[in-house]
Amino acid sequence: MDNSTHLLDGAALDAGAVGFDFDKGFPFVSGIQAPMYIDSRKLFFEPAIREKTIEAFKKKIAELNLEFDVVAGVESGAIAPAALLASAIQKKFVYVKKKPKEHGLKRMIECGEVKGLKVLLVEDMVSTGGSSLNGVQALRDAGATVTDAVTIHKYDFPEPDKAFPEAKVVLHPLALVSDIAREAAKRGVISQEQSEQIINWLPQPHEHW
To answer: pTM score > 0.85 for this model?
Structure first.
């Protein structure tokens, strides 16, 4: 794992964005019950953490030498980071709706046209990857080329490690949940045993931790 991935291991903890519940856990839309939850939106409340997050995105993009015309965020959690990143690097910005409007033009892509353009998908969090790849498909249906995605946080689940390559998209995370769990143990937020519970659970998320 390159060093840029670890730039944000502590940012979510600094922002008060990480919750732990080793009794009931947190329900995900996918049906997974998780002992650890991250509200990535909280990284954009305080200016210093917000700036650190956008700088991490910029460093990752530079390291990978990614070339693209448009930055796209998936509604709703990725709209803020995608818009801020697009502004910071002076790129076009769009956001992808989870479903088309029921009125007007019934668009999936808002803010501008992406036909014939290369798009970098931005996410705040990837767990199973379903909503992200739905966004990729919507962009491709609109005529865009999408080969790469960047996300602030990624759960170390097996699903995205299979689904993204199958969709011919490379996913680049800035922080992994396993590393945030290790950092939380270092800070005494959770015990070492609880950190290991999370790390051992991640490869089999549909099982109880």
So the answer is: yes
What CATH number is associated with residue 61? 3.40.50.2020
What is the average per-residue pLDDT within 157-181? Answer: 97
**Cβ neighbours of 177 (radius 10 Å):** 27
Residue 68 is assigned to a structural domain of this protein: yes
Closest CA to 137 of 72, 61, 65: 72
Residue 11, in any domain of the structure: yes
| Rounded-to-integer distance, Cα 147 and Cα 130, Å | 16
